[in-house]
Write a structure and sequence with these properties.
Length: 182
């Protein structure tokens, strides 16, 4: 104890601490320089795929459901038969009134189909175009029933233009049946 060894009597001096060498290499996924190009390449591939595939998948499901809803009114439209000539006023007005009722009922069924949020804008725009066209047809039929053929013809002419646009948008969306009666 008083021999000057500092209390470590009998313990050999280990000498200097050995150098452990360089720190271990981090795994490849922890290297920020290597990781960024890989992440950017993966995003460059995945974003377009997801950006196209998911909306297309959602839209195809919607299109199928909407066409099924609208196709329920095709037999009624076929039962209505061919449009009689305008000279047969009573039959012509009955036909137009029946067609208007079928259009409205089919639009109501189409409206009930759930719209996927990602592709909702395009779908809502197409539906609104069809609904607007049907409104012009309904108004034209109403004027024709009142005997005002000039006003009726203006609305029906407007319907024809709007109906063409609605059908064009519907076909671009992939709908084959909706809008019914256009």
């Amino acid at each position: 104890m008083g021999n000057g060894t500092g209390g470590n009597a009998g313990t050999p001096d280990p000498g200097p601490t050995p150098d452990p060498g360089p720190p271990p290499e981090p795994p490849w996924y922890r290297k920020p320089v290597i990781m960024w190009p890989i992440v950017l390449a993966a995003l460059g591939i995945l974003v377009p795929i997801v950006g196209y595939a998911v909306p297309a998948w959602l839209k195809s499901g919607y299109v199928q459901e909407a066409d099924e809803a609208c196709s329920r009114y095709v037999p009624q439209l076929q039962a209505l038969g061919k449009q009689p000539p305008p000279e047969q006023r009573a039959a012509y007005h009955a036909y137009e009134k029946g067609l208007s009722a079928i259009m409205d009922a089919a639009l109501e069924e189409w409206r009930k189909v759930d719209v996927p949020p990602i592709v909702g804008g395009e779908i809502r725009e197409t539906f609104a175009a069809a609904q607007s066209a049907a409104q012009y047809f309904r108004t034209g039929v109403s004027w024709a029933e009142k005997g005002d053929t000039d006003t009726a013809n203006k609305y029906l002419d407007e319907f024809n233009g709007k109906a063409d646009g609605a059908v064009e948008k519907a076909r671009a969306l992939g709908l084959n049946v909706c809008p019914v009666g256009f």
